[in-house]
Amino acid sequence: MGNPAAPACQPGAAAADRGRPGPRADRRPGAGAARAGPGLGADAGRHGFAFAPETEGHVVTLDQAGLRKLLGASRGLWEGLSRSRAAALQADSSQGQALFAITRALRDDYAGSSPWRAQVLDGAVLMAAALVARLPPLAAEASAAAEPEGRALQHLARYREQVERHYRSHPTLDTLAAPLGITTTQLNRLCRQHLHCSALDVLHQRLLLEAKRELGYTTLQVRQIADGLGFADPAYFTRFFQRLTGQSPSRWRDER
After folding, report:
1. Which Pfam families match (predicted)?
2. Digit-coded pLDDT (tens) for 182-241
3. pLDDT score at 139
4. Which comes out higher in pLDDT, residue 219 or 13?
5. Which CATH number among 1.10.10.60, 3.40.630.10, 1.10.3720.10, 3.30.2310.20 corresponds to the domain 202-254?
6. What is the pTM of this model?
7. HSE (CB half, 13 Å, CA atoms) of 192?
């Protein structure tokens, strides 16, 4: 849903109309799959999922802080999304039909400008979150309900909250790790184990996501975007953006 280009290490969920997230595709007619990582997201890879070439479906990428705020009044739902899930869904099942309808509605409404758009999007996300939370956790995680694994995911969720809160000020990893009560070494180990990227990558990808949003959806000049994202020198922002995307901010905006 709606990120210009969803970066690695961002919360997300995948729903495949045909095939499935993973190294092989399910070729049975009418078969589909839904998969979600912790907090409705963050497995490995660019969206957290690997797809067979013939897989068709949707990846929904959500801002974790916004999602948590949206789910705040729904007791237990956030915690219910704290473990990864994967499930085969028949196209004619009520749950499968609902999830695929929601993902298509999110795509269509996000691209549109109909009245009450924000309310429709929030309602769709809330319903999708509840349906995903009903899916059984992956067997390995279910058997672990597991202290170490549970603590690791909690640390990662709290780390992403710290990133969301402070990314514009370019904090050090020591600053971000301190409220979690763990060292930067432990934080990096958790990120590499669960997100397949470093803790610094999580911070950089959040900055990149915001840069792409502002380049894609505002008319701000590059130097204004750089300043708003905490880069004292626009040239440094350009080098940062080009290192992660292979393009300058201006070229990326022109080629959208």
Report:
1. HTH_18 (PF12833)
2. 999 999 999 999 889 999 999 999 999 999 999 998 999 999 999 999 999 999 999 999
3. 52
4. 219
5. 1.10.10.60
6. 0.55
7. 7
* Six token digits for residue 47: 């969206």
pLDDT of 17 strictly over 80: no
109: Cα within 13 Å, side-chain hemisphere:
18
* Per-residue 3-state assignment (H helix, E strand, C coil) for 73-133: CCCCHHHHCCCCEEEEEECCCHHHHHHHHHHHHHHHHHHCCCCCHHHHHHHHHHHHHHHHH
**Token couple for 210:** 């915001």
In order of 38, 98, 118, 154, the CA distances from 70 in angstroms are 16, 20, 12, 19
In which residue are the tokens 């000020």 written? 169
